[in-house]
Amino acid sequence: MRQDGYAPIEDYALIGDGRTAALVALDGAIDWLCLPNLDSPSVFAALLDATRGGTFELQPTVPFRATRRYLPQTNVLETIFTTDSGSVRVVDAMTLPDDHLAPLRELARSMEGLSGSVPMRWRVAPRFAYGQRAPSCEMRGGVPVAVWTTEALALASWDAGTPAWNGDAIEARFDLPAGSRPLLTMSAAYAEPLVIPSRAATLSRLESTIRFWTGWSAARQYSGPWADAVIRSTLALKLMIFAPSGASVAAPTEEIGGERNWDYRFCWIRDSNFMIDALLQLGCVEEARSLFWWFMQATALTEPELHVLYRLDGGIGASERAIDLAGYRGSRPVRIGNGALDQNQHDIYGALFETAWLYSKGERALDADTGAVLGRMADRVCDIWRQPDSGIWEVRNGPFHFTHSKVMCWVALDRAVRLADLDEMPKSHAARWRREADAIRAYVDTECWSEELRSYTRVAGSRDVDASLLMLPLVEFSDAHDVRVRGTVDAVNRLLREGDAVYRYRADDGVPGDEGCFLNCSFWLVSALARSGRRDEAAALMERLLARANDVGLYAEEIDPESGAFLGNFPQALVHLALIDAAMALQS
């Protein structure tokens, strides 16, 4: 299972509470958890450094086989460990007291002996500040507490052995017979009083958490043939929404694997567009509303200029720097922050206007102040669309005249004109927005088209393609049945597809190292095929891609097309959003 101390990326499952999230490996180890929030420094980071990162292990002490699932319609994880002497059920959750968030962060690990008797062990080795600080060790009322500065973690246990400090880790061993129900709970405090819960209180919150997730899932609006995958993706996306602000992360982790290691724990304008579209289609109105108004508040801080990404609290994102961790299986450097913050990416303006249009046309009219802000942004698009940028893929050897960026500038101005026609944006500059939109269309149709390829191109004047071109019919730049769109879909299928998976592009991007196929691009191809009338081909590809999920229905950012191994961030919001769009395209 593990190699050099690292589990395969596909061995992880995600649990969370709307403020932070943890990755639980198939062998029972929690190897990633940031506290108190998704974008806080890690407490467990064995995912990125098996020796120094910190972990919370729970498993049999004898050889075992593990199977798992999420409890139906929840983000509560169930793992069954089977040994020669018996079997054990473990239920992992980050608890919610009810449908509101309390200050407490609580990780509950409930066990039940199913048969025989199984020797078990647990070990908690917190490492604060991205693995840089080991805790001081205390006992409070018989409960082990790990402390560093103003941060404290309490490890309460019932019928799970006698915990003791061993160096800077807490551990215990015990036998788990059939019918026994041990419990572990880790509660966290940050510059506030540490609450050590009772067994009854923890179990009550665990039951409340299960009720919350089943009730939330039942309200989702999708009943098509891929309902299980869509609902699982929606539940995963819900864990990537930071409930206190409504912002969503691109992934709850650092990137893992290779040299292309980036911190994805920020809210991208582009991803927010996809997220709000999916949320509205699935009936997640409250989440869509919160994200939209976070979106507008964050961008108001920098308008009419947009930043590529923002912190979860709406502030400007952090600069990129390397930290002293070994990296997943030696993939270094490990970075926090993200250098894309300093790039110009013009497509994000189209993402913002498409979001405003989607939100507004759902009978949620924009107010005059919001319309005025959007008007100033539309004027900026008129000023900048002729300039090159770094594009959707955030290349580091640009800027270039990316076709996708030009199209999304067209989207910005097209939606601005539509909103002005509805009196939700000022009309005084609408004529200019319309002229510039026409100019962009003319540029794309002349400078970004290759007669040789019979396709739109990645960059104006180039002879290669880019998977982002699959989105042209989605944003209504062209009809899906248009000969140029069909030619572009064919070119991407021919030049970027490897088996069932699709590369972003095959051009140099200024970043060393290789990459796998991007799974969101693969689902984009499904959507494009479905929208262009090739539904049987799209449905067949959809089925094969769904089979590429891990055992609990989650996807990483990338996949090795030969081995099927996951690469990159895990789980990745954009992949699950693309899956939902593909399902919707096939259903329509």
Task: Explain what the structure shows.
The chain has 588 residues and is of the alpha+beta class. Helices cover 32% and strands 23% of the residues. The strands form eight sheets. Strands 5, 6, 7, 8, 9, 10, 11, 12, 13, 14 and 15 form an eleven-stranded antiparallel sheet that branches. β27 and β28 (566-567) form a beta hairpin. α3 (227-239) runs antiparallel to α13 (573-587) and α6 packs parallel to α8 (403-421). It is globular.
Question: What is shown here, in short?
Answer:
This protein has 588 residues and is of the alpha+beta class. The protein has 13 helices and 28 strands. The strands form eight sheets. Strands 5, 6, 7, 8, 9, 10, 11, 12, 13, 14 and 15 form an eleven-stranded antiparallel beta sheet that branches.
Q: How much helicity do the residues have?
A: 25-40%
Radius of gyration: 24 Å
- Spans with pLDDT under 50 lasting ≥5 residues? none
Major beta sheet, specifics?
11 strands, antiparallel
The averaged pLDDT comes out at 91
What gap, in angstroms, lies between the N and C termini?
Answer: 41 Å
Question: How many strands?
Answer: 28
Strand content: 15-25%
Coarse morphology = globular
Q: Determine the number of helices (DSSP H or I, runs of at least 4 residues).
A: 13
Class by alpha and beta content:
alpha+beta
